[in-house]
């Protein structure tokens, strides 16, 4: 019964968050969901990060439980005389994934306008041009406008408006496989919210600081100010991490497989996680029979990049829900990985007392 209740809540959150419009610098819709789901005292900082603080049996240690609210998207750069919209990227895109895909443009008045990504048709391309990855500069968004005045006056679209993929949340034929845009990082946001909802009924020996950060996809900007503001003693970063259980990866390389459990990241180019914290997370997972995968990543990064450097240093770990095809219109996650991550977060929240957190940075060897 408890598992089914967790699943139902997770599905509701993942749908609501996954479909929300939240490009970097315009995370308003995700902030609203955070407020709606976490009743009680919620605050924001000057960067737009959103925070809820919950004291447990002890005030210290302060544990930052965090995920970024933004998704990769675009901003309107200009409008052609013919009414086509040119874009600049907000975050990392591989342009192969964009052509003929639907997008949603959010106007300054709060209206969403549907469009499709277009380019010069292949019928008019040379053979050499067809073999190349098309540049974003050669693409545009067609919203069905007659000209530039139509785009501005009738549709209300102007430079700077943000653009995200149009991709409805969809359980697949096996309903444990879930399809939507933005699981990087709405999976992490759903975990943050659901864990805080459940912690209201769970005793924990610390203060939990749930934080939704802004602008991770354009340089982990919100996490820097958020960490400074909440000043944590330890941090758990929750992410939708790239899966590698696909053709082209050997069995030995696979560290993010769908259905194999929460991913505990040991390191990536942006951060080497606190080894004792990682070992503690593994111990807690094994004690509580939580399925997990260990990952050492050659590329990529998370908000841990700046959080672990806050002040004199913050022991930090990254827990991931592996997601296939992130930074595209359609990502895929597995419900069991999400539930494994949720259980590990709850068990860590119950276990991180002052002595344990202090042990992570007792470098006496």
Structure commentary:
It contains ten helices and 18 strands. Strands 1, 2, 3, 12, 13, 14, 15, 16 and 17 form a nine-stranded mixed β-sheet that branches. It has a six-stranded antiparallel beta barrel with strand order 4-5-8-7-6-9. Strands 10-11-18 form a three-stranded antiparallel β-sheet. The chain has two domains: 249 residues, Aminopeptidase, CATH 3.40.630; 93 residues, Elongation Factor Tu (Ef-tu), domain 3 (Beta Barrel), CATH 2.40.30. Helices cover 29% and strands 27% of the residues. By secondary structure, the protein is an alpha+beta fold. The mean pLDDT is 96. Helix 1 crosses helix 5 and helix 5 crosses helix 9.
In short:
This protein is of the alpha+beta class. The chain has helices spanning 2-19, 28-37, 127-130, 148-154, 183-199, 221-230, 275-287, 304-307, 335-351, 354-359; strands at 43-44, 50-55, 62-68, 73-79, 84-90, 102-106, 112-119, 139-142, 162-165, 170-171, 177-180, 207-213, 234-242, 262-268, 271-272, 292-296, 316-323, 331-334. 29% of the residues lie in helices and 27% in strands.
Number of domains: 2
Which sequence of SSEs, written as H and E, runs from N to C?
HHEEEEEEEHEHEEEHEHEEEHEHEEHH
Helix content: 25-40%
Question: Structural class per helix/strand content?
Answer: alpha+beta
Name the CATH superfamily assignment of the largest domain.
Zn peptidases
The rounded Rg comes to 21 Å
- Count of DSSP strands: 18
CATH topology heading of the largest domain: Aminopeptidase
Question: CATH class of the largest domain, anyone?
Answer: Alpha Beta
Strand content: 25-35%
Q: State the major sheet.
A: 9 strands, mixed
User: What's the shape?
Assistant: globular
Helix segment tally? 10
Poorly predicted runs of 5 or more residues: none
The termini sit apart by 47 Å
Level-2 CATH architecture of the largest domain: 3-Layer(aba) Sandwich
Mean pLDDT across residues: 96
């Amino acid at each position: 019964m408890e598992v089914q209740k967790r699943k139902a809540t997770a599905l509701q959150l993942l749908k609501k968050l996954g479909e929300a419009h939240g490009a970097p610098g315009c995370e308003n819709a995700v902030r609203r969901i955070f407020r709606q789901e976490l009743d009680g005292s919620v605050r924001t900082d000057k960067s737009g990060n959103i925070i809820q603080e919950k004291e447990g049996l002890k005030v210290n240690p302060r544990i930052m439980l965090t995920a970024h609210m933004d998704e990769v998207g675009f901003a309107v750069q200009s409008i052609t005389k013919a009414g086509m919209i040119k874009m600049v990227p907000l975050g990392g895109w591989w342009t192969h994934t964009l052509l003929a895909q639907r997008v949603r443009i959010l106007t300054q008045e709060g209206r969403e306008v549907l469009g499709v990504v277009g380019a010069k048709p292949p019928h008019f391309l040379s053979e050499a041009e067809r073999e190349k990855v098309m540049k974003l500069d050669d693409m545009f968004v067609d919203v069905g406008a007659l000209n530039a005045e139509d785009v501005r006056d009738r549709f209300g679209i102007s430079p700077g408006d943000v653009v995200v993929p149009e991709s409805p949340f969809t359980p697949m034929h096996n309903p444990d496989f879930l399809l939507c845009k933005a699981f990087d990082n709405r999976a992490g946001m759903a975990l943050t919210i659901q864990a805080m909802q459940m912690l209201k009924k769970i005793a924990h020996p610390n203060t939990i600081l749930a934080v939704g950060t802004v602008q991770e996809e354009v340089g982990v900007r919100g996490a820097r100010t958020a960490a400074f503001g909440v000043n944590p003693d330890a941090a758990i970063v929750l992410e939708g991490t790239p899966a590698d259980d696909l053709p082209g990866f050997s069995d030995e390389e696979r560290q993010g497989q769908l259905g194999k459990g929460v991913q505990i990241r040991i390191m990536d180019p942006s951060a080497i996680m606190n080894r004792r914290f990682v070992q503690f997370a593994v111990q807690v997972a094994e004690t509580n029979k939580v399925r997990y995968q260990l990952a050492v990543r050659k590329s990529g990064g998370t908000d841990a990049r700046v959080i672990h450097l806050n002040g004199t240093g913050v022991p930090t770990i990254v827990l991931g829900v592996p997601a296939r095809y992130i930074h595209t219109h359609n990502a895929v996650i597995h419900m069991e990985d999400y539930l494994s991550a949720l259980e590990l977060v709850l068990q860590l929240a119950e276990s991180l007392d002052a002595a344990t957190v202090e042990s992570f940075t007792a470098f006496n060897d």
